[in-house]
Amino acid sequence: MNTELRKLKDEFLMYLYEISKMKMVGYIANFIQGEDALMLRLFLNGPMTPKELSEELKVTKGRVTAIINKLKNKKYVDVKTNDEDRRSVTINLSNLGREYFQGKLDIADNYFDNVFSVLGLDDSKNLVMQIENLLTKVKEANI
């Protein structure tokens, strides 16, 4: 790796470290892993099987089952058994789960309204465009 790229990578890692200490990360992290990540998938996709959730979240079926059981105990999800195959179940957000999750989304939405307001329209567009560019190139390179 050439010197300039190494310097940019080190700078990038330092910025990631600084970002990791920000309040913003808490709002993002909640939707990436654990109960909230599973609820987000159900919120966006509707009913899903544990296998689909496992693949989507990139965690084991055992981990998904543990999360589903916790959410079921909180009455945030409904588990429906398939009438044709009793071994197969579908998971869906309950009304209580949908209300709870919508509240979390509203809090994050308000926070990011403030972030984008501070950035302004042009910098916000640039940020989104750069993230889209990063995602596209990393997916294309399959890394």
Shape descriptor reads globular
| Strands side by side in the biggest sheet | 1-2
Q: Encode the helix/strand succession as letters.
A: HHHHHEEH
Oligomeric state, counting identical vs distinct chains: single chain
Task: List unreliable stretches of 5+ residues.
Answer: none
Number of helices, where a helix is a run of at least 4 consecutive DSSP H or I residues: 6
Supply the helix-strand structural class. Answer: mainly alpha
Number of domains: 1
Instruction: Give the C-alpha Rg.
Output: 19 Å
Overall number of strands: 2
Largest sheet: 2 strands, antiparallel
% residues in beta strands:
5-15%
Helix content: over 70%
Alpha-carbon distance between the two ends:
17 Å
CATH topology grouping: Arc Repressor Mutant, subunit A
Task: Quickly give the CATH architecture.
Answer: Orthogonal Bundle
Highest-level CATH class: Mainly Alpha
Average of pLDDT = 93
Question: What layout of secondary structure does this protein have?
Answer:
Blueprint: H1 3-20, H2 23-29, H3 34-45, H4 50-57, H5 61-73, E1 77-81, E2 89-93, H6 95-141
Helix pairs in contact: 4-5
